[in-house]
């Protein structure tokens, strides 16, 4: 017994070593990486961090920060993976910086709807496109029909003006001493009575002529919330302005003091920023100062990249660079996970066209599901659940059923991070990359399935998904436009569908080449590169640069795509939970592993060792009557035999 135990242990060690050599990243370190990346609140994943002035919202602080406050909130609902949100983030950071002095009356905040934990909030606020900006006023409470005022612009100057306009129509007086006085100066007001209700610290009144439909004075008042010595008042009428020596044709403002003296100032231009600057310097000249600004959200010390994370990410990336045409199991799984657990779950209501689209998508996913046994069961059950509904289904019901299935079936996903879609920085690549990968994979599986009759099954599922669920709104719009232009519904065969998707993806690659969302380590190329597939490109002397499709050998492209998406060649690099894998794939992989590991050893010796180990393990299993191994379910997947 003892000797057998020792032999078994030795075998396990040998097998473990083989595994870790061939997997590239030692498995124990991989586990650490997985743990780090699956932390529910990964500060590195959102678009905002401790260095900017955007108030970071999440499920834990949302209500206490924005509901029933005595000030308003500007909230951005975004998805980290949405390219447009990424491009907008620096603009929003600047706006938050600029509007920092407004914080006693309105704060600038953001919530990441791509974080699964925030599904419920994004559902409540019926976020239909990303990014969405909403203003939630003081005492705000969401109801079924009221979830804030949507601001339909992303221009920072317009946003500033809209916010000032919203602030100016709120009824806020007693609750918030900082609220600006929005009442215009009237004809009956005089230099004497304007100070009547003011506190003694307020030694100056700034009078600003505000042209029709402008928010100049309110904005200026907001910029000066921190200056206790001054109250800003708006004047809407040119004759009243003249009474205070303001020429409404010039951009002028008046500073009035308690003795009735008027000082006229001419700001640099007609913006509230220039007006506030002019008033501030006048006040400083009178030896007045602002109160110190309080910190809005205690500056969280940004957890610097978890120790070792960078190194492991770069190990993954160099592995991916070494094997340019591998498709990774990890990415397929991550795509499915995000689709189900985030994108669909955070919908408020799924009815009509979106419901049909979801049913179609789940049908295709069930048919060509790359997940392991549990994952295949889950998707089948989920599809059965969703097709019962013919009117509507709420995202919450979907999420509950999904969670129920996950807790019933156990481990579904074998990884919690991307591999082929890992970006060189945390905000690059990821989900959108894996979504392309998944749909290419599905289109190739469909092409290899003789039973599938409908050449459009995958394209239709993808189109419906992208149109109704994909949380990258500008991607979705572009894609729908492209689908119509490229006549997606005229695709006549399954092979053509594979090529349609390939060509559409290349069009997107071309448009995004050089974009801010491009990962410098993964430049946008016309795929596949000449290095990956020389025969895919025809060397034509006169092919112009922009006639992309002229110089492709489509037959070669098609077989290339079919090859790389062949389930047998899907790489399991970085997938530690072997038992979840498709058994046939695991076997295939073991074969490949053995051949690669033993290539520089005596192959026969190696095979013998391996066989011996397996023999010993079987023996050990018998002897110790091991329980709890996975059930072998015969799985006659006819796709797997094909190339
Ligand atoms: C439907 C859709 C529409 C999108 N529209 C936009 C948009 O309008 N604006 C925007 O900013 N972002 C858009 N994106 C995101 C963008 O396309 C990329 O996903 C993102 O920039 C990440 O790029 P990536 O370098 O990881 O490679 P991706 O372009 O995501 O590609 C993923 C992987 O697929 C392989 N691949 C590349 N090209 C092809 C091809 N032609 N055929 C087969 N395989 C290929 C490569 O191995 C690549 O690494 C869209 C994404 C999707 C899914
Ligand atoms: C937050 O507020 C909403 C709406 O009032 C409520 O439904 C929800 O339960 C609250 N969440 C928490 C965590 O208090
Ligand atoms: C402000 O209060 C008045 C009366 O109290 C009410 O008619 C008006 O609708 C309120 N305005 C807002 C924006 O709540
Ligand atoms: C102000 O807005 C109103 C309503 O939108 C519009 O009718 C009016 O012409 C605007 N005035 C100016 C000076 O732009
Ligand atoms: C207006 O003046 C301010 C302050 O001098 C300056 O920062 C801003 O760029 C100017 N804006 C325009 C539109 O000229
Ligand atoms: C060059 O391009 C033109 C038009 O695109 C085509 O008609 C011609 O046959 C091409 N010539 C060669 C040598 O491929």
What characteristics describe this protein?
643 residues; alpha/beta; Glutaredoxin; Four Helix Bundle (Hemerythrin (Met), subunit A); 3 domains; four-stranded mixed sheet; 8% strand; elongated; binds 2-acetamido-2-deoxy-beta-D-glucopyranose
Word description of this protein:
This protein is of the alpha/beta class and 643 residues long. The protein has 3 domains: 42-169, Glutaredoxin (3-Layer(aba) Sandwich), CATH 3.40.30.10; 193-285, Glutaredoxin, CATH 3.40.30; 307-583, Four Helix Bundle (Hemerythrin (Met), subunit A). It is 45% helix and 8% strand. The chain has 21 helices and 11 strands. The chain has helices at 2-23, 27-38, 62-66, 83-98, 119-124, 156-169, 216-223, 238-243, 272-285, 309-322, 329-344, 352-367, 373-387, 395-409, 431-447, 457-468, 473-485, 494-512, 554-564, 583-597, 603-624; strands at residues 55-57, 72-78, 106-112, 132-136, 149-150, 204-209, 230-235, 253-257, 262-265, 349-351, 392-394. The strands form 3 sheets. A 5-stranded mixed beta sheet has the order 1-3-2-4-5. Strands 7-6-8-9 form a 4-stranded mixed beta sheet. A two-stranded antiparallel sheet has the order 10-11. Helix 1 (2-23) crosses helix 21, helix 11 crosses helix 15 and helix 15 runs antiparallel to helix 18 (494-512). 37% of the residues are buried. The chain binds flavin-adenine dinucleotide and 2-acetamido-2-deoxy-beta-D-glucopyranose (5 copies). One 2-acetamido-2-deoxy-beta-D-glucopyranose binds at residues 169-171.
Task: Offer a concise description of the structure.
This protein has 643 residues and is of the alpha/beta class. The protein is built from 21 helices and eleven strands.
């Amino acid at each position: 017994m003892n000797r057998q135990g020792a032999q078994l242990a030795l075998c396990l060690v040998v097998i473990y070593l083989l595994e870790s050599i061939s997997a590239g990243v030692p498995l124990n370190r991989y586990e650490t990486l997985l743990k780090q990346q699956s932390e529910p609140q990964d500060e590195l994943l959102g678009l905002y961090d401790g260095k900017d002035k955007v108030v970071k919202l999440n499920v834990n602080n949302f209500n206490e920060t924005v509901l029933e406050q005595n000030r308003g909130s500007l909230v951005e609902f975004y998805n980290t993976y949405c390219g447009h949100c990424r491009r907008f983030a620096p603009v929003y950071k600047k706006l938050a910086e600029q509007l920092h002095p407004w914080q006693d009356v309105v704060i600038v905040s953001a919530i990441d709807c791509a974080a699964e934990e925030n599904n419920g909030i994004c559902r409540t606020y019926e976020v239909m496109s990303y990014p969405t900006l909403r203003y939630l006023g003081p005492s705000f409470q969401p109801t079924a029909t009221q979830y804030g005022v949507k601001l339909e612009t992303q221009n920072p100057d317009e946003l500033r003006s809209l916010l000032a306009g919203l602030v100016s129509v709120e009824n806020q007086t007693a609750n918030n001493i900082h609220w600006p006085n929005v009442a215009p100066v009237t004809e009956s007001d005089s230099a004497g009575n304007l100070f009547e209700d003011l506190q003694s610290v307020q030694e100056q009144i700034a009078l600003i002529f505000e042209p029709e439909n402008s928010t100049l004075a309110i904005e200026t008042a907001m910029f000066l919330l921190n200056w206790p010595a001054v109250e800003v008042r708006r004047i809407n009428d040119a004759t009243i302005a003249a009474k205070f020596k303001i020429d409404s044709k010039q951009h002028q403002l008046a500073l009035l003091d308690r003795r009735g003296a008027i000082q006229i100032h001419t700001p640099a231009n007609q913006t509230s920023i220039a007006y506030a600057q002019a008033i501030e310097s006048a006040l400083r000249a009178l030896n007045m100062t602002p109160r110190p600004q309080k910190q809005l959200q205690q500056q969280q010390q940004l957890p610097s990249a978890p120790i070792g994370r960078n190194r492991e990410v770069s190990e993954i990336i160099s592995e991916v660079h070494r094997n340019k045409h591998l498709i990774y199991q990890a990415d397929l799984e991550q795509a499915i996970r995000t689709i189900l657990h985030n994108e669909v779950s955070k919908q408020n209501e799924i009815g009509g066209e979106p419901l049909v689209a979801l049913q179609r998508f789940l049908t295709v996913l069930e048919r060509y599901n790359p997940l392991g046994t549990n994952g295949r069961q889950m998707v089948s059950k989920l599809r059965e659940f969703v097709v019962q509904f013919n009117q509507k289904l709420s995202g919450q019901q979907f999420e509950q059923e999904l969670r129920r299935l996950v807790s019933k079936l156990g481990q579904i996903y074998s990884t919690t991070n991307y591999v082929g879609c890992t970006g060189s920085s945390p905000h690059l690549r990821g989900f959108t990359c894996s979504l392309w990968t998944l749909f290419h994979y599905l289109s190739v599986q469909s092409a290899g399935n003789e039973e599938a009759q409908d050449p459009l099954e995958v394209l239709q599922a993808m189109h419906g998904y992208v149109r109704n669920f994909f949380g990258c709104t500008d991607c979705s719009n572009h894609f729908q436009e492209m689908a119509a232009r490229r006549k997606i519904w005229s695709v006549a065969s399954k092979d053509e569908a594979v090529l349609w998707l390939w060509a559409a993806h290349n069009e997107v690659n071309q448009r995004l080449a050089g974009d801010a969302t491009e990962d410098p380590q993964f430049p946008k190329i016309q795929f596949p590169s000449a290095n990956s597939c020389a025969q895919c490109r025809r060397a034509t002397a006169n092919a112009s640069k922009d006639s992309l499709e002229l110089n492709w050998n489509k037959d070669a492209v098609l077989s290339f795509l079919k090859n790389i998406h062949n389930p047998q060649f899907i790489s399991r690099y970085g997938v530690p939970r072997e038992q979840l894998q498709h058994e046939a794939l695991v076997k295939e992989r073991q074969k490949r592993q053995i051949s690669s590991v033993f290539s520089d050893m005596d192959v026969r010796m190696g095979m013998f060792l391996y066989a011996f180990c397996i023999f010993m393990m079987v023996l050990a299993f018998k002897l110790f009557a091991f329980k709890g191994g996975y059930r072998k379910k015969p799985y006659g997947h006819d796709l797997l035999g094909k190339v």
